Amino acid sequence: MRFGANYTPAQGWFHHWLDFDLDAVRADLDSLAALGLDHVRVFPLWPLFQPNRTLIRPRAVGQLVQLADAAAERGLDVAVDGLQGHVSSFDFLPAWTRTWHRRNLFTDPEVLAGQEEYLRTLAAALSDRPGFLGMTLGNEINQFSDRPHPDPDRITRGQATAWLERMLAACERGAPGRMHLHAEYDAAWYRDGHPFTPAQAARLGAATAVHSWVFDGTAQRYGPAGTATEHHAAYLIELSKAWAVDPHRPVWLQEVGAPAPHIPEDRAARFTEATVVNALDCPDLWGVTWWCSHDVARSLADFPELEYGLGLLDNDGGVKPAGAAIAALTEEWRGRTHRPAVRGTALVVDVGGAEAAPYRSVCAPGGAVFEAWVKLTAQGVRPSLVLAELADDKEHLASRHITEVCTPDEVDRP
């Protein structure tokens, strides 16, 4: 079982790449290693690393390698996100894709070639580092493809699949055999018509990444201590398995945090512990990577209020209650094998077809599948989920150790 943090530098946030200070990075990594973590997820800003379509700055790539080496010295492996893309409400896109050079991020041939070479270059630069886990294509880059983005690059589901396959292949060319994957925010699982789909998330790449944020309506609807809120990450992990072809495909809880005021500050430690413990009750979990390592400094303007206080550590490296909870969990799990009991009861997920999932909103907070899963969980059932198309497939059910199947309607009956 892996425990890590999404690395948000204490000095300058991701703008630290403009004034890269290796000593400051080392101090940050020291504070993370002291929590017992074993990896960090790192975010180069795409416009700073590739300011021109044919210029990938060697110095910036070298600084990324220096960061990876500094992490390795502290026993921390490194996963790298390539196309940043979008982080903490800000878009970071190179000028050669916007305004006068406006081109679709997912379909324009020249943009695709530039992205492909950029991802390959970063992967190749780290390929000989034993602590390099692999590339994630970008952080929630699906948000550029659909509403509520104010200026989306519209694509079809087929075009999204083609983009994902091409970019994953570029990462594999740069660093063969590493854990290369993609990561979307929950529109892929919850939004009808979204071009990025659950099938893509659960079948393309070396692992499935889920990002669990309870400000998506979960905490607002069910409260900070509700079963749905404390099990939201576990629900997404189990939901992903409904679409997975490999019954034991690894699932990475790649982002999860305790956003105030939806999770009050005095409940942050409790929420952190409950979320992680519930996620650990899911088979085939690869690891948990908390968002984020350090708070965003109040001297930086224009972030949404909830973004400032998400760190395990404050800007001076002090351990916050969520950080203490994570440190206690890493200590508890050190040396243990992750082998939770099987989940023998599965709830049927009918989204109108597995590939396009046109009615996937039934899986969202307030939807019939979500509500039934939470109700079963509150009863102590520990449910998994299975696609309607596979609910009568005995071979599939046996491969997942499922012995009982029920529909949301059956759960709702008195």
pLDDT averaged over residues:
97
What fold name goes in the CATH topology slot of the largest domain?
A: TIM Barrel
Classification by helices and strands: alpha/beta
Q: Please compute the radius of gyration using only Cα atoms.
A: 20 Å
CATH architecture of the largest domain: Alpha-Beta Barrel
Order of helices and strands: EHEHHEEEHEHHHEHHHEHEHEHEHEH
- Specify the oligomeric state: single chain
Number of strands: 12
Q: How many strands, which pairing sense, and closed or not: the largest β-sheet? A: 7 strands, parallel
Give the tally of structural domains: 2
First-residue to last-residue Cα separation: 39 Å
Spatial strand sequence of the major β-sheet: 6-3-2-1-9-8-7
* Number of separate helices: 15
Can you walk through the features of this model?
This protein is globular. It folds into two domains: 2-333, TIM Barrel, CATH 3.20.20.80; 345-412, no CATH class. β10 (345-349), α13 and β11 (384-387) form a beta-alpha-beta unit. The strands form three sheets. A seven-stranded parallel sheet has the order 6-3-2-1-9-8-7. A three-stranded parallel sheet has the order 11-10-12. α4 (109-126) runs parallel beside α5 (157-174). It is built from 15 helices and twelve strands. The mean pLDDT is 97. The protein has helices spanning 22-33, 46-49, 58-73, 109-126, 157-174, 187-190, 198-203, 218-222, 227-230, 232-243, 268-280, 321-333, 368-378, 394-399, 408-412, and strands spanning 2-6, 39-42, 77-83, 86-87, 90-91, 132-138, 208-212, 251-256, 285-290, 345-349, 384-387, 404-406. Helix content is 36%, strand content 14%. The chain is of the alpha/beta class and 414 residues long. GO terms for molecular function: hydrolase activity. This is Glycosyl hydrolase. InterPro entries: GH (IPR017853).
